[in-house]
Design brief:
257 residues; alpha+beta; Arc Repressor Mutant, subunit A; Beta-Lactamase; 2 domains; 6-stranded antiparallel sheet; 9 strands
Length: 257
Amino acid sequence: MANSASGDSVVDRVVRVMSAFPEGVTVLQLSDLAERAGLPLSSAHRLVRQLADHGVLDLGAGGSVRLGMRLWELVNRNSPTLVLRQAALPFMEDIQQVLNQNVNLAVLDGWEALFVERLSRRGSVANRARIAGRMPVHISSAGLALMANQPRELQIEYLGQFSDPSGKVTADVVRPLLAETAQEGFAQLAGVVDPDTWGIAVPVVDGKRRTVAALGVVVPLAEMRLQALVPALQTAARGIGRQLGEQISSFHSTEFV
C-alpha cells in the first residue's frame, strides 16, 4: 500500500478520514474534515472523492461531506455483533417492558465497553451509553461485568496499564471491584456517571463458557430494587446465551447447503 510523504499508508489516511466525524455528527465541511484528519486539503479531497465513488461518503455542494448509506449497509450487514444483537433484542425488550427504563448491551473492546445496542423510552433516566459509544471499563457497570469475567491474564494486563484521566481512581480501587463483581455475578455502580442513576449489569456467556457481552440497565437511585433486578437480568442473559448457541448452530448446519 502506497505511503504518503509522512509515511502513513492509504489505509491509515482513510481510517483517519472516517474517524474524523465526531459522535452524532454525519456532515462536515471538507476543510474541517481535512483538519480533523490531519491531512492536507488536497489529499483529503482526493480521498473523499474516491470514497464517494464507492458510496462510503457523499460529497455535496459547497464542500460538505456526509457519511454515505453504503457505509451503513456494510457495517450492519457484516458486523460481528449482528448475531449478538439479534439474539439479545427480544430479551432486552422484555426487560424494558417490565422496568420502563434504559436497557443496554455492551461488548469488551480493548479497555473499554463498546455499546452495541440500547433501548430507552420517554421518561427514562439519563443514560450516557450510546449505540457505538464507548465507556472506560471502570466507570461502567457493563465494563466491570465484562472485565471481571475475562481470563486472569487479561485482567492482570488491564490493571497493569490502568490509568484514570481524572486521577481519582487507581488500580487498587478497581481490583476489589472486579473481584466483588466476579463473586456476586453482577456489577453495580451508583452515581458514577450520573449522580441520580444506578447501573447494574450481568455477563452474557456463550456455549463455550466465554463472556461475550454484558446486559445492563440504568435505573433511578430512588427506584433501585437489586433483589428484583439482578435475577431478571441473569435470566435474560442466560436466554441470550442459549439463543446465541442456537443461531450459531443453525448457521453452521446450513453453511454448505
